């Protein structure tokens, strides 16, 4: 990047399964100029999140429009206002934005949130932003753990799971994580303070999960699906709650999965155990509630009662590989691309 | 039956698929004598309900123990106290009981509810009892229809569905039933007052259901599963609620169903449309709430704002065929066996 050109990464083709390098294309164009009522943003940090895979399909998931072929990939960003023709935004301000996978973007200000001074602005994309808020909403609105209950969190060291588990601990629950790899599991217990964490890649995963949940499972924070869901289902207690924030195990499935059809068996479990299973999309819950969440979470981070870990990748050009790694579970903490230094 | 012998129907074998005649056995034994603190009950009406099929499996559904081979089939009854060594029950009183598939039963009184004078005591097994209460709880606790919303009720003329639909109408919802056969559908519209009712056996069922729900579906009261669920799923609106009270389409499935596995697709819909799907078992909700329900519902029936239809079969010996017919959808209204005249 220099002062007059700007890079962006566009969707070149709809992926089959895991996104490949040539499903993306890096383009260069002149830095755009803001019109009246617009600001010009320079991207400092770009959030990389699982939902992005869903937006690469020809038909979107409903809660957000799909990315068109040839259009820039979308994504949340921490951006700096570098030119302003908007009365509410001053040059130099740091904002939470949706600039997408590009060095620069224009905005009319409607989707911007002024961040003010932050020691670690990238956290506005993670624990203090969308993914932390996802954990908060799913737990408050659906999971509702009570002291002494057992909460199981999948993707336990990921951006959402790590916060969901820590918030559940603060509510007095026993928290058991599920993560991919021994190092992540150690981290969940030693640093995040979970009561246990089971490696989903290890032998006898289901048996070890059962052993770690001797009183069954009251809340399962679902973001994985697949074999993890299968291991959790028989352990759910009567009256269990399952907030569903994602199914990353299925995002790369190109075809209808083969049988047997597990739906009747899952429905029978829902009925027999009076399980509440409920999807939610964090986009529905912004506004005042997000402001309150940010204040409270910043306080917790400052006190040290919640620990946030980031996995920072340098360079916009590395965003495609970063997304691919995320979908394979290779990140460790909230995945963020550092696009520019300031 | 005479004054000294008593018939009962026991489970002779675990059914494969639909229960067959020789899965049951009619036995005769002496009328038992009540011990101190017991009452002797004569069964007047026996309720026949889909859950009974689940209790015929070697492993029960969890919310109630399975019926052992050689034991009397269980079931709710309206019974008359014909001998009493219990201070709280007088000879001649009518009670709601769990006497099962037999002419006589002993009780220590703990599970009895004195019915008082009722013009139509069998209703205590249906709209004024367990099945009506099931409709009430599912709608109040999970469905929560708002005026103008679209509520779809499966098994629309059945014991639960007919009440669920009428209660939803009273809340100002648009109610679309699903039933098996043109006569049931006509009844749902003409007598129960549903806005529409679609014959699930007719051609282009899914298309006709979609046409009857131009604004989508906000609440789906699920008691069927199978192809009915498949037709409903794509029509569910963002924020839809699905109280799950049964899956009668699957109760006779002997084996795991073949693929494709629909679970990932259903979970994706739950997430994308923020659907709340929740099983419930009415057994959890008795007590004071049931008393209030019975009073209110009796009032509605007296006023004519809720219509209750019964399908009465004469003779205990016909209970097995009645259950089989219920599982095939051949009943029309709440299925009850009249075991004795008074």
Describe the protein in words.
Two copies of one chain form a homodimer. Helix content of chain A is 26%, strand content 24%. The model of chain A has no long low-confidence stretch (mean pLDDT 94). Chain A contains nine helices and 15 strands. In chain A, helix 9 links the parallel strand 14 and strand 15. Chain A folds into two domains: 5-126 and 309-338, Medium-chain alcohol dehydrogenases, catalytic domain (Quinone Oxidoreductase, Chain A, domain 1), CATH 3.90.180; 130-283, Rossmann fold (3-Layer(aba) Sandwich). In chain A, strands 3, 4, 5, 6, 7, 14 and 15 form a seven-stranded mixed sheet that branches. The first copy, chain A, has a six-stranded parallel sheet with strand order 10-9-8-11-12-13, sandwiched between helices. In chain A, helix 2 packs across helix 3 and helix 5 crosses helix 6 (226-232). The first copy, chain A, is an alpha/beta fold.
């Amino acid at each position: 990047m220099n002062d007059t050109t700007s890079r962006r990464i566009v969707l070149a083709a709809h992926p089959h399964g895991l996104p490949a390098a040539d499903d993306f294309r890096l383009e260069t164009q002149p830095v755009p100029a803001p019109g009246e009522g617009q600001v010009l943003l320079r991207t400092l940090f770009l959030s990389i999140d699982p939902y992005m895979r869903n937006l690469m399909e020809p038909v979107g998931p409903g809660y957000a429009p799909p990315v068109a072929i040839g259009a820039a990939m979308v994504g949340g960003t921490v951006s700096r206002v570098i030119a302003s023709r908007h009365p509410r935004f001053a040059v130099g301000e740091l904002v939470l934005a949706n600039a997408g996978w590009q060095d620069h973007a224009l905005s009319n200000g409607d989707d911007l949130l002024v961040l003010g001074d932050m020691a670690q602005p990238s956290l506005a994309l993670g624990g203090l932003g969308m993914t932390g808020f996802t954990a908060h909403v799913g737990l408050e609105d659906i999971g509702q753990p009570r002291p002494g209950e057992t909460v199981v969190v999948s993707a336990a060291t990921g951006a959402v799971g790590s916060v969901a588990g820590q918030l559940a601990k603060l509510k007095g629950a026993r928290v058991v994580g599920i993560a991919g790899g021994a190092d992540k599991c150690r981290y969940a217990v030693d640093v995040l303070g979970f009561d246990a964490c089971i490696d989903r890649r290890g032998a006898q995963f289901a048996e070890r999960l059962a052993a770690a949940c001797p009183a069954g499972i009251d809340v399962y924070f679902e973001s994985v699906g697949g074999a993890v869901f299968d291991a959790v289902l028989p352990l759910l207690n009567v009256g269990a709650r399952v907030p569903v924030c994602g199914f990353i195990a299925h995002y790369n499935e190109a075809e209808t999965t083969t049988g047997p059809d597990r739906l009747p068996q899952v429905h029978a479990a829902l009925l027999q155990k009076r399980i509440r299973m409920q999807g939610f999309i964090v986009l529905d819950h912004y506004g005042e509630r997000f402001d309150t969440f940010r204040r409270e979470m910043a306080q917790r981070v400052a006190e040290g009662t919640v620990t946030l870990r980031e996995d920072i990748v340098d360079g916009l050009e590395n965003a495609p590989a970063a997304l691919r790694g995320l979908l394979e579970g290779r990140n460790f903490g909230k995945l963020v691309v550092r696009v520019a230094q300031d």
